[in-house]
Specification:
This protein is an alpha+beta fold. Helices cover 39% and strands 16% of the residues. It has four domains: 93-305, Metalloenzyme, LuxS/M16 peptidase-like (Cytochrome Bc1 Complex, Chain A, domain 1, 2-Layer Sandwich), CATH 3.30.830; 321-545, 2-Layer Sandwich (Cytochrome Bc1 Complex, Chain A, domain 1); 572-700 and 752-789, Metalloenzyme, LuxS/M16 peptidase-like (Cytochrome Bc1 Complex, Chain A, domain 1, 2-Layer Sandwich), CATH 3.30.830.10; 813-995, Metalloenzyme, LuxS/M16 peptidase-like (Cytochrome Bc1 Complex, Chain A, domain 1), CATH 3.30.830. The protein contains 31 helices and 28 strands.
Length: 997
Amino acid sequence: MTMRARAKRAAAGLVAAAAICGCTAGSSDNIADPTSSTATIDSGSGTPPSNTSTVSTGSAPPASVPRPIDDSTPVVAPVADGLPSISEPDPEIVSGVLDNGLRYLIRRNDSPGRRVEMRLAVDAGSGLEADDQGGGAHYLEHMLFNGTERYPRNELIDVLRSFGAAFGADINASTGYDETIYQLTMSTDDADVVATGVDVLHEWLTAATIAEDDVEAERGIILDEWRGSASDSGGRIFEAVEELLLAGTPYEGRKPIGTREAIEATTSEPLRRFYDEWYRPENVGIVIVGDIDPAEMEAQVVETFSSATDRGSGAERPELDVSPSVEPRAVVHLDPDVPEGFAIVTLPVAMDATPSPEAAFQSAVLDSLLFDIIATRLNDDALRGEAPYDDASFNDTSIVRLLDSPGIVVSADGPEVEAATQAVLDEIERVRRFGVTEAEVAQAAASARSAAETTYAGRETRQDASFADEYVRHLMTAEPIPTADDQLALQFAVLDRATPETVAYGLVDRLRRAAPHLLVVAPETESAEVPDAGVFIAQALDMRSRDIEPRTTAAVVGDSLMAAPDPVAPSDIRELADGSEISFVAPVVLEYSNGAQAVFNQTNIVDGAVSFEARRAGGLHAVADADVASAVAAGPVVGASGVADFGPVELEAFLDQREVGVARAIDVSTEGFVGGTSTADLETLFQLVHLSIVEPRVDEVALERYLDDELPLAQDPGLDPSYAEFVALSNARYDDPRYLPPTPDSLATVDADTVDRVYRDRFSGAGGWVFSFSGDFDPATARDLADRYIGSLPADDVQAPDPIVEPDPPPGIVQDTIAAGDSETASVALLYTVPGSTDPQLDVLAEMAQAVITTRLTDTIREELGESYSPFAVVQVGGGGEPFIDTYLSNSTGPDLVAEVSESVQEQLDDLRSVGPNEQEFAAASAAVRQGLELYSNPQINDEVLRLLTDPAGTASFDEFLNRERLAATIGRDDVAEFLARTLPADRYIEIRTVPR
């Protein structure tokens, strides 16, 4: 298994994630194979508003003279008069309210096609729990998967699996402070399957059994989820966030996951009471989006849900108001498992529920511009190496519905954290006193406008899940659901009206109603260098008396990264596929005399967007042992250093106004780029890649930041149990530095000169490079750009590398127990590695085996034994002419259950080796995999193109990709059983047990 990771510091993004319990899977942009008559690609219609700043906005707002408020910069309160309306719902939505109060929203949509997303949205979360119901909203969520009147025990999961739905990916739920959301994703090929989905939503609302035996059986699973989300550093940090923002509110002490004590004490009675009280028709909504007939679906919803009744006492929903302190507050959290410190400075106020939708939208947009400007100023200082922190960005800690808490997060080591928070507070005060500039507003507005245009361009290929999630927000928070045209018209109108005075008003007004709240997180080992909370409160109190000067002029952003080179025509053009098998897979290859190839595959999987990836064979295997660490560093360091005459600050300012992103990396067997762009910014992507090859830069500050990020976990992998497991698996599997994570010794060899030399060696010239583009573009335009920016790259004499053969796995059974993390969670990981082949059927067999193993572990280790929240398997076939097949299994559990879980897993694997999957397991896996193979994405198409053109020994023909669905249809249960018996040898594997330290 090729395993390489980057050390990751504690991220403030975990704050928002920790406010939700559940493992709701994210969605991606896909399209279904349209060979079936039921799968079509909507060509779309409608005329977009102008993409310039001349959108008609009705009457102009009344004139207002800028004036200072409380010695602030002169400001103007924005007004919503004359703004385009977003109050009217999109007419494509079929909506209604039943007599019992249940609301529903239904929409026909065909992206990805042949699928439907269903949601049951319950307007009740942990904030409504009574004192004896701690963690009950989340516990109840679990119970709804453990039995209803029509589907007792786990029959519900079995029924849905038989339709191809996967537990976790397609059948899921999440519980927050304010709501609980249930999710189904299913095929629409069979009307009975869709009808069953609606029936399941009805059962969840009306017929949960909540049997005491089932409550007891689920307790271990929920405790394991608690161990993994609340007892580790992330959970401890979130408790600090709660202390900072929710103390004294109705939410205090009501974290969705609950406490260990509450989980251990839960019985069926308080769960039943919560269910009857809040799972009532007027408190829920149904959302259905997908490849369905809205009229038929509405009739089914009306028939199914009209009989639902209120089972509770009819209690009114209590007011869950929040009133953040108007005095500064600070919480300092020192954690044993945080590799690097960070601080969040936020300005929380209660959400204003009174404005019109248009006024609320305008306020939100202006606030986003304001905090983008502040974050950009601070981050530019960091990029220049002139700040006591590594980076700065916008952060939103609005963790409950009525809390409005935008802020800035900076990452900093303990000794610098006091100076870092002072810098953030000074910048906030600087804006209050001196405002922002027209250039800053123009740049922030250009960035917002670019993002809005890209979103609008993709409106006809917007995914089912995206619509469904928006409609859930409408049901829960009354978020408007306008047409894409109306949304864009309002956004452009607000951006056109934005001025330095209206943007600064948001901060001046907020500071009249709010005081800074600071969260400081640092490694426990730096406790002596981190002041107590009183110091940070004093900083906030002292803001007005600080000696602060206005900002100097920001970086000037040009119109282009470079002049376009003269075009160089390709020496050959050929097709990899003609679209006859799959209409949107017809890649065209342009070969250039400099040795490069450009591949274009035009699709409308996502309108207005292009995915990009490039590879060249070689990678770390073409690098000397002593240079491996510098080669690994080269991609991220060069990527953060700018290109040509654009330094990091200038390049970031330039790209901030465009929808373009490119990452570089040198991996084990290849060097490459990966990224994407809006269709409108395709030339900028070409320019960025061209300059990354011919004029790269290595910035000392970027290198220092990279080493600062990597070093803590290199010194002590045990700070992060998952990373520690990865390190242990890697060290047990390999003895070649190309496959191993960084160490303090290897990082000590990394310097700017070596990074520059290695990068220029591996990214020099065009020879051997394959650049693949899949998405929405004009073929003639793309061809011209390739001729100019790829065809003109200098040729080089790079030699084709020798075939790369991954090292053999160690003989016998390798077992190790490692101590990592200060928490109550443990895990058992297994890695099996066996020789494979280039047989294309193996890739599909691997997917089926993965589904079978995950299902078996879920049904036994999780459901029968109740010892693991989310066991799973990953099965992969490597590249090259002599690939390995890797099977990785992960099982989280409690420290006292490690040996038992290990033994139980081996018992199940023994059964799979000797007997294979049962008929039900095979049918579920086959259905899930075959349905998954119907979906295609632009990054996936690029990957398949590059596998063929950069790894011909491992991928002989593009037909292997085109024929996946047919291959899947030929695979039977015996084939999967044979595959499992071969890939799970009982006498050769690695087992890593991770326990708390």
